[in-house]
Amino acid sequence: MDKDPLLQLRVFDLNCWALRYLSKLRQERIALIGDVLSQEGFDLALLQEVWSERDYWELKKKLSSCYPSSHYFKSGVIGSGLCIFSKHQILDTFLYQYSVNGYPYMLQHGDWFCGKSVGLVELKIQDIVFNVYVTHLHAEYCREKDAYLPHRVVQAWELGQFIQHTSKGADIVLLGGDLNMHPEDVGIRLLRGWAGLQDSFTAAEKVEGCEDGSTLLPANCFTNQKEMQFYPQGIRIDYILYKGSSQYKIRCNSHVTTTGTVPGKGIPYSDHEAVVAILSVEKREPDKALNHPIVEPMLVDILNEARMEVRVGLLSAERQRYSCGRMAVLALLLLLMQGTMGLTSMFGRTMQPFPKFSFSLLGLLAVVVLLISAVLYLFHTIEVKILQGTEEQMRVGLQSLHDKLNSG
């Protein structure tokens, strides 16, 4: 017979899709999100894509009596969009911005300008220390030809590393967010295996809502139907993950996803469905304490697969750096040639000068191409260095895993 838990937590997670001027019915949906958070009184609300600080402050004002502690994580040009509302006092906060996050020239996607990050808050509830993380990884715009897969794998690796290195003093770890990965993707498997996290959906004693836990549904009026044509049952990309410690264990009593419009309203909360997990925390028996975590042999294969994806990204970044460098050199040669021709026409007597307008226009074009190419060359050089560094970190991690498996 199970003993009564020390405490229960109700955790709410939602990608709010609240981009000013672009997201449909943003203000109405933000008001509905505030209403449900106020009525339900969750212990924690982990929100993503709250791009406007004005929306955050409106939510904060509305929820101040139910959630006295909250924090908005700022990063990038337009902001991380991450925020946390808590019934319990927030003791500390920290933000880590991922080292790679798409490309600034991909304006139609815009992930680079968001400064995708992971936010951390520390709580203490009944003398139990909680590290709560909220994140939003780079979007997947085309699954068949996913140019951002290496970046997302690097983000998953950095997220796992960040959790490992910041949670050593925590009793309970909670992670919520839009990870933009299917449950079987290498990034999810790497994150769960490396950081030792459990998925609230797969571990739940009871599941309500979508049978497969999908959070992108074709029935949602805001969902891009073209992206969903190959997934008639929906896609699960929003997660609540958790792990305990040597002193405390945690289990998921219930995992609930919303499945459409808000009750009594004609619109859903967002283009994503909300996820709610009810978690129980119990004291671990002394003889069952996890003093030596078990290393799964499968993690070696997962890490090798992730390392291969990073190598693919590295080769692509090196090609892009070479192309930008070559374009910069050509633009510089054109400028030198123009300068030579200008000096020759100015001091020589045998050559006719170009029309001034055409000559100036060509020179301006060469300068613009040189500047853009040089900036992109530097950007891709940084990308190459980061991918090389991540690949080396994974190599060290693989060696450590092999040593543990051989010694065990």
Question: What this model shows, in words?
Answer:
The protein has 408 residues and is an alpha+beta fold. It has two domains: 282 residues, Endonuclease/exonuclease/phosphatase (Deoxyribonuclease I, Chain A, 4-Layer Sandwich); 110 residues. It is 40% helix and 23% strand. It is built from eight helices and 13 strands. Strand 1, helix 1 and strand 2 form a beta-alpha-beta unit. Its cofactor is Mg(2+). Belongs to the neutral sphingomyelinase family. It comes from Eublepharis macularius (Leopard gecko).
SSE diagram, text form:
Layout: E1 7-18, H1 26-40, E2 44-50, H2 53-63, E3 69-73, E4 82-86, E5 90-97, H3 111-114, E6 117-125, E7 128-136, H4 149-166, E8 172-178, H5 186-195, E9 198-199, H6 200-203, E10 206-208, E11 238-243, E12 248-257, E13 275-283, H7 298-347, H8 356-407
Parallel strand pairs: 1-2, 7-8, 10-12
Antiparallel strand pairs: 1-13, 2-4, 3-4, 5-6, 6-7, 8-11, 9-11, 12-13
Helix pairs in contact: 1-2, 4-5, 4-7, 5-7, 7-8
Spell out the key features of this protein.
single chain, 408 residues, alpha+beta, Deoxyribonuclease I, Chain A, seven-stranded mixed β-sheet, 8 helices, transmembrane helix
Shape: globular
Any idea of the CATH topology of the largest domain?
Deoxyribonuclease I, Chain A
What would you say the CATH architecture of the largest domain is? 4-Layer Sandwich
Fraction of residues in helices?
Answer: 40-55%
Pathway: Lipid metabolism; sphingolipid metabolism; Sphingolipid metabolism
GO biological process, one term: sphingolipid metabolic process
Subcellular location: Membrane
Main location: membrane
